[in-house]
Amino acid sequence: HEIVKLIDEQSTHIVLVTEPPLTNNALNQINGTYDIFTPKLIAGSNARVGVVVSKDLEAAELFEYSSRDMIAITIRVQEKQVVIVSFYADITFP
């Protein structure tokens, strides 16, 4: 799966589109606790963005890596798209 674009529908509603679409069947086929999908460089951005999906299928996180900090965005599966439902800036990970 590759992130092909981020669509800004509203300031607080961003749809993450993957190719191929990230369906529940695709999530069920994930082995291990986490699976990192192929990162794709977003046009106009220095950061590489990858999707990390938890095995329990209840939550997923999109990690945007910049040079010195990380932004974690919580997403959920809706239909054949992944919808960002919340995000946390300036998160530090050990």
Task: Write a structural description.
The protein is mainly beta and about 90 residues long. It is built from one helix and eight strands, in the order ββαββββββ. Residues about 1-75 and about 75-94 have low confidence and may be disordered.
List the helices and strands and how they pair.
Blueprint: E1 2-10, E2 13-19, H1 24-28, E3 34-36, E4 40-41, E5 48-54, E6 60-65, E7 70-78, E8 81-91
Antiparallel strand pairs: 1-2, 2-8, 3-5, 4-5, 5-6, 6-7, 7-8
List keywords for this structure.
mainly beta, eight-stranded antiparallel beta sheet, 8 strands, globular, Endo/exonu/phosph_ase_sf
Number of helices: 1
Quaternary state of the chains: single chain
Structural class: mainly beta
Mean pLDDT: 39
Q: How much helix is in the residues? A: under 10%
The largest sheet, given as strand count, sense and whether it forms a barrel, is: 8 strands, antiparallel
Q: How many individual β-strands?
A: 8
Span between termini = 27 Å
**Unreliable stretches, pLDDT < 50, 5 or more residues?**
1-75, 77-94
State the domain count: 1
Name the shape in a single word. Answer: globular
Strand content: over 45%
Spatial extent as radius of gyration: 13 Å
Order of helices and strands: EEHEEEEEE
